[in-house]
Design a protein that fits this description.
Blueprint (H helix, E strand, L loop, with lengths): L20 H10 L1 H21 L5 E7 L12 H10 L2 H11 L5 H4 L3 E5 L4 E7 L3 H54 L8 H40 L1 E8 L4 H31 L5 H8 L3 E5 L6 H23 L5 E6 L2 H16 L4 E5 L17 E4 L11 E7 L9 H4 L2 E7 L5 H13 L3 E8 L36 H14 L17
Parallel strand pairs: 5-11, 6-9, 6-10, 7-8, 7-9, 10-11
Antiparallel strand pairs: 1-3, 1-4, 2-3
Helix pairs in contact: 1-8, 2-8, 4-6, 6-7, 10-11
């Protein structure tokens, strides 16, 4: 009977996006301490500015400004011109002279501002050293502006009337010449050329008379319109002190500082996340390490209900790791990355669970030994340093605790255990270092049984499981044969175990696992 094996061509892995928005949002949310601190700092800065730098005493007044060129469809050009004229040294100097002040007009201009509320309403805001001084300055400035505006109106009207009268006088002189010519001409005869000339002179005299009358009316209208404009330009709101509320100013500045600080914090967190390139999602950590995430352990919390859930999760994790260690024929180690304290505590809990059935010795290879120097408690397993690892009794199960952080002595890792469980803190290591860890463990032929993720994102719904095998094969790696009685192992079993370990660590391309249950090949 011939068995045919169907060979399927593996699908090419999907191209990784240039920017993973889900990972970015998760990473920014995990850095909430940064942007919350920035927001709080902005809020406090806004309150401090309101308290320590209060605005000077300020007075405000409003002036109604009449323009000769007012039009219903004016976009506000005239009132903006008035506001610009208000900031001239001529008006500032006139106001200072009325107050008999020795201050320079250039300096006084910096203490006030004009704002066009409508096409004809100008608001003047003036600051001073006291409320009384601010009111006095506002009144003097408003009076100076009104006087200057009236003077300009009258000068414009006088100039226009003068021009019209000059045109009228020229027309009168020309009319006198035409009249003199008519008087000097003899009576014309019918049908002669003199009759035609006389008719043109009479027509010219009539035209000049009409234009002289028109210029006289226009000059009179120019003078008549000036009093209306002068009367229409006046102070409609007397100078008064602008009330200042410290709580209101503090609240406004605090809100502005809060928004700005939050925006800066979020931007800094997003930029730092992209630059640092530290994976947070389970699927990313599993893909970069080339090993599945087998368990998670949330961060510590002061909330009672969360502490109960964390203790229950730790108990389940210790039970699962105990089964993994008991089913292994060779030592197993816990290698931490960014969570030395959590890995040492987990090793002690695991040692206590195993010590109930067989002798256990924990080999502490962490930098600055954390376990071998602690005071043992009842029920704790025996703890030795990395240098005393060979002094244990036969039949004892060894449980190594080490690190794969930068500066690790990679050649010492196989002595802690041929199989290992990586205890990794989410968002701690960069992508390049996760690749380094996976490559170094492969070179040292240390099989990775799985990854325990510390402080995962609670909203992470990605799978974090790698699977690159035929369908129907149980997920997981084949285990070594159980130990023989007395702790000895036959040469045949050792050969089988060595071959199994080599088979287990064959290079496998790491694939990004999608959020759904679809398998990545």
């Amino acid at each position: 009977m011939t068995t045919r094996t169907a060979h399927t061509t593996p699908e090419p892995p999907a191209a990784a996006p240039l920017l993973d928005l889900q990972a970015l949002v998760v990473a920014v949310r995990r850095r909430r301490r940064l942007w919350c601190s920035m927001a709080l700092l902005g809020l406090l800065a806004g309150v401090a500015v309101a308290v320590l730098l209060p605005p000077p005493p300020t007075a405000v007044t409003k002036v109604l400004v009449a323009h000769q060129q007012d039009q219903p469809n004016d976009p506000g050009t005239l009132i903006r011109t008035d506001a610009a004229l208000l900031h001239t040294t001529r008006i500032a100097g006139a106001a200072l002279r009325s107050m008999k002040s020795s201050e320079k007009p250039e300096d006084f201009v910096e203490d006030y501002e004009g704002l066009g509320l409508t096409n004809n309403l100008l608001q003047i805001t003036v600051a001073g050293d006291s409320d009384a001084e601010a009111v006095e300055r506002a009144e003097a400035l408003a009076d100076a502006f009104v006087a200057d505006h009236v003077r300009r109106i009258r000068e414009a009207a006088s100039a226009e009337a003068k021009t019209l009268l000059e045109q009228r006088d020229r027309m009168r002189d020309e009319l006198a010449e035409v009249n003199a010519t008519i008087e000097e001409e003899p009576p014309p005869q019918s049908g002669s050329q003199d009759a035609a000339n006389m008719e043109s002179l009479f027509a010219r005299r009539a035209e000049l008379t009409s234009r002289i009358t028109d210029f006289s009316q226009r000059a009179a209208e120019a003078r008549v319109g000036t009093p209306q404009l002068v009367a229409g330009t006046q102070i409609v709101d007397a100078a008064r002190v602008v009330p200042h509320s410290l709580p209101r100013a503090a609240g406004t500045n605090a809100a502005i500082g809060l928004v700005l600080g939050l925006a800066l914090g979020l931007a800094a967190a997003a930029v730092g996340t992209v630059v640092a390139d530290r994976p947070v999602l389970r699927r990313e950590i599993a893909a970069h390490l080339g090993a599945s995430v087998v368990a998670e352990l949330p961060r510590r919390s002061l909330l009672p209900w969360r502490r109960r859930r964390i203790r229950a999760a730790r108990t389940r994790l210790v039970t699962s790791l105990a089964r993994t260690v008991r089913g292994s024929a060779e030592p197993v180690s816990l290698l931490e990355l960014g969570c030395a304290r959590g890995a040492s505590t987990l090793a002690l809990d695991l040692g206590r669970a195993l010590a109930a059935e067989e002798p256990v010795v924990v080999v502490d290879a962490l930098s600055g030994p954390r376990l071998s120097r602690r005071r043992p408690k009842p029920g704790d397993p025996a703890v030795v340093g990395a240098g005393d690892a060979g002094a244990g009794q036969s039949g004892e199960r060894r449980l190594g605790v080490g690190s794969v952080a930068p500066g690790t002595a990679w050649t010492d890792l196989p002595y802690l255990g041929a199989r290992t469980v990586l205890v990794v803190r989410a968002g701690h290591a960069a992508t390049a270092w996760l690749h380094t860890v996976a490559r170094r463990l492969e070179e040292q032929r240390v099989a990775v049984a799985g990854v325990v993720l510390i402080d995962p994102d609670p909203r992470d719904r990605s799978d974090g499981t790698l699977w690159d095998g035929p369908r129907g094969v149980p997920l997981g790696r084949s285990e070594r044969p159980a130990r023989l009685n007395g702790g000895g192992t036959s040469h045949a079993l050792q050969a089988v175990g060595e071959e199994t370990r080599r088979t287990e660590r064959l290079p496998m391309p790491a694939a990004r696992i999608p959020d759904s249950d679809q398998e990545a090949r």
